Amino acid sequence: MKVIGLIGVCIFLVACASGTITKTQPREASKPLTDAEKTYVSLIEADGRLMYEKDTRAATATDLLLSKINSSDYPNFVG
C-alpha cells in the first residue's frame, strides 16, 4: 500500500513539474577559464575527493563499531 502511495506522489510531482511554463532567457556565451581558475577548480576537486573518501571510511568505521557494541548502552551515540 505504501508503494502505491509513493508512486502516486511521484506521478503528482512529475505532473506539477511538467505543467509549469518557464520563460527561457538567452544564455550568455561562456568564456574559457583562466589558468588560475583551472588550478583553483582542480584544487577544489581534490579537496572534494578527499572529503568523500574520508566520509566513506568514517561511515564504514561507524558501521563496524555499531556491530561490536550494544547500541542501547549508548543512547546518544551518533555515527
Explain what the structure shows:
This protein has helices spanning 2-19, 35-68. It is built from two helices and no strands. The protein has 79 residues and is mainly α. 66% of the residues lie in helices and 0% in strands.
Order of helices and strands: HH
| Average of the residue pLDDT scores | 83
Largest β sheet strand count, sense and barrel closure:
none
Decide which structural class fits the backbone.
Answer: mainly alpha
Low-confidence stretches: none
* Number of distinct beta strands: 0
Distance between the termini: 32 Å
Assembly classification:
single chain
- Structure annotation, total helices: 2
The portion of residues assigned to helices is 55-70%
Give the strand content. Answer: under 5%
Cα shape: flat
Q: Round the Cα radius of gyration to an integer and report it.
A: 23 Å
